[in-house]
Amino acid sequence: MKKVIAILLCLFTLFVFVGCNVLNNPATKQSVEIENIIDIAERDNLPTDDALELFYSDDTYDYYFSSIRSMYVIVYYNDGTEQTVQDALAEGKIKISDLDSFGIHYFKYHSEHTDAFTVTYDYGRIVENTVTELFNYGFFFNVEFEESKIPLVAGDKLVFKHNGEFVSLETYPSQICFEGEVINTFYMYTKIRGVSDEDIVRNESGGIERIKNCAYTTEYVIINENMEFVKLSEYKGDFLYFSIDPSTYISDDSNDPQPLSASAFYAYNPRPD
Fold first, then answer.
1. Measured torsion, CA atoms of residues 74, 78, 81, 82, in degrees rounded to the nearest 10
2. Lowest-confidence range among 18-27, 178-187, 221-230, 243-252?
3. Listing from the earlier edge strand, what are the strands of the sheet with 174-179?
């Protein structure tokens, strides 16, 4: 009798072990697949608000329904579950191409992007003894934009709203190319500050050895509106201004002791009020 009970216990244990393995084996589980995608509003002729509805975006396009109907466009799966197309796309369960496969109508437009290009300077490498104004150390090759109504200085930004793509060629200066449509452009202007005499440390020849309370990497000062320049160590003038690097600027009301960072130095005020 004990032998029979032992055999039964072994068989029971084996059954439980095999059964659990079968249940936990991914190969035995039913894969969830799309069974159908239905626009219920279209099928049942339901009223919807007359406005474009954004239901999905990727790196290239924004996708819209022709009216407010995303709650009616439903994905049905073969396991009996369902959800809206908007949720299914957000969770990565379906692709936009699946809507095409099931005849779901939508519109797509290039996504709107914003890119900013900072005014930078080339000191004499492009035009000898002259500063050349660049954007992100490059020239725009095939982009049209409105000229600034006030003089640009290093640190200013030209901002594009567009639905295309900028590509910079790896040259010096770089060539900035664009494919797409420019929607809008505008400028973000940095501020100009004067350097006090107390912050200027002179060298033996009367040039500038260093400037206190100001972080900077440039070693030049622009001396006139013709964009001629000299080294700071050779500049003996009485006036010195700088354009603020906007990435370091906090506010005029800030009590933060961190010094401002200069994008460029000028022997004159390049943008007088």
1. -10
2. 18-27
3. 165-168, 174-179, 138-140, 131-135, 113-123, 157-162, 182-188
